[in-house]
Write a structure and sequence with these properties.
heterodimer; A: about 140 residues; alpha/beta; Rossmann fold; four-stranded parallel β-sheet; 4 helices; B: about 350 residues; eight-stranded mixed β-sheet; binds iron/sulfur cluster; binds FE2/S2 (inorganic) cluster
Amino acid sequence: MISDKHDDFTPRITSFLCKWCSYTGADLAGTNRLQYPTSIIPIQVMCSSRVDPVFLIKAFLSGSDGVLMGGCHPGDCHYETGNYHTRRRFAILKEIFDSLGLESDRLKLSWISASEGPKFAQVSNEYTEQIRKMGKNPTRKSVFL
Amino acid sequence: MNSIVMKQDASTAIRELLAYLLSSSRVDAVLTMRQVPETGSCDLGLITDPSGMVEAEPFLPVMTANAGQALSSISMSGKRIAAVLKPCELRGFTERVKREQGSFDNLLTISSICGGVFPLEKVISGDLEKLVPRYIEKTARAEAPRGLRETCKACEEFVPMNADISVSVTEHGSLMHLHSDRAEEYTEGFEGERIEARADQSHIDRMMKSRSAAKGKLFQSLEKSSGLDGLVDLFGKCVGCHGCSRVCPICYCQHCDFESINFDYNQPYFQESLEARGALRLPPDTILFQLGRLTHMSFSCVGCGMCSDVCPVSIPVAGIFKKTGERTAGLFDYVPGRDSEEPIPVMVFKEEELGDIG
Ligand code: SF4
Ligand code: SF4
Ligand code: FES
C-alpha cells in the first residue's frame, strides 16, 4: 500500500458542518477574510446529529485524508440535544477505529459557533497541518475496500 | 433463593415443566429447541400441543437461530409464552425489547448456566450425536468441551442475567432457581422438592477461568487482522451476502440501510471510483458495511456467534464484533442485555461527559 509521508501535498479534509453554527462560522471566516486552507471541503448539514457515522466512514474509505465534523457547542444545538448524540456516536466511532487499528486521528470533532470565524480558521489550519504530517490516507489508493 | 430440586436430568425436568405449563393452560405456547428423534435434525420450535413436547430438547447445545431474535415478534402476539433461551439469546431479546421489538409482558423466560453451543457445521456433518454426551459430562464438571463456537469458548456471560427461571447443573445435581414472582406463580403445583439454594459459585468460577483465558486468546488472534491491510485481508473474501446481519439478534431494521437505495451502486459510482483508483473491488463496500454496522450496534452485541456461524467464507465476524463491542459498550459502562431498564447508549447522553473528544 502506498503511503506518501512527504508533507508537501494538500490534504483533502471532508468536513460536515452544521448549518446553524459551524457552517456559519466558516462563512464568517470567509467574510472576515481570514486565511484558511483549501484542504477543507465543506458539506452543509442541518445538524451534526444528521450525520450517520457511516457518512464519516464512507469519506474515510473514499480517500479523504481527514474527516471533520463540526457542530454547535454542547448546549447550543439548534435542535437542543442533537450534538450530545453526535458526541456519543463520535466517541463510539473513534473507539471502533482504535480497536481495529485504523488511524482514528483522521477523524476530528470540533465545536465551532456561528460567531467563531477565527476559531474555524484556526481549527482548519491546525488540523490540516496535523494531517499533512500524517501523510496521505492509504485508502486513497487501496482498491480492495 | 427458592429453588426446585430436579430428580431427573435437566432436559427431562424442564421438558416436564414445559408440558405442565401447557397442559395447565398457564402458557399458550412454548419456544424451545427441538430434535426429531428418528433423524436427529434439529430446529427452534414453537409448540402448543403438550404431546409435541417429546421432541423438545431444551438444552440442545445448538443455536439454529438466535431465539431472542425469533421471539421478537411472537412475544407481542398477546399469547403467553414460555421460552427456553440461552443466556445470550435472552440478552439479545432484552436488547430488542429496548428497541420496542419485543415485550416481556406475557413471557416466562427459562435459561441456564450455559456450556456453549456447537457450530452448525457439526449439525450438518452429523457429528452432534457423538458430541452431546461428552458435552454434558464435561460441562457438569465445569470443563470446556471441544469444538464449540469460538465466541462460546470465550463467553464470560454464561450465567443468565435476568431470567425468570435459571437452571444450574453441577456434579451435585440440577436445580431450577426461581428468580421472579412470575416464576413462583407459574411453577405453583409443579412437583419437586423446594429448597433454599443458589448456583454453585465455585463451579461458575472454574468455568469463568477457562472462558477468560480463551477470550484472551481469541482477542489476541484477531490482532493480526488489525489496520487497513488487515481489514482488507479479512473482508477481502466477503461475498456481500449480508447473512451476518440477517441472523443478528440486534440488527432488527426491516429495511437495512446497507440494502437500501443508498447503496444501490450505479453507473456514476463505478465511473467515479474507477477514475479515482483505477480499479474497483466487487462487490464494493464490504468493509464499510461492517464498520457501519459496528457503529450502529456493536455496543449491544451479545456475542452469540450466529454471524460467524452463517458466514459462507468463514470470516470471524463474531470475534471482531465481540472484541470491538466490549470496547464501545465499555465507554458507557454498558452491558448489553443486563437490564431491560438500562437505556441503549446512543439513545441517551449526559451533558457533562466525553469532554476530551470535541
Ligand atoms: S455465547 Fe455464551 S451464552 Fe451464548 S451460547 Fe455461547 S456460551 Fe452460551
Ligand atoms: S456473512 Fe460473511 S460473506 Fe456474508 S456479508 Fe457477512 S462477512 Fe460477508
Ligand atoms: S444544529 Fe449545530 S449541532 Fe445541532
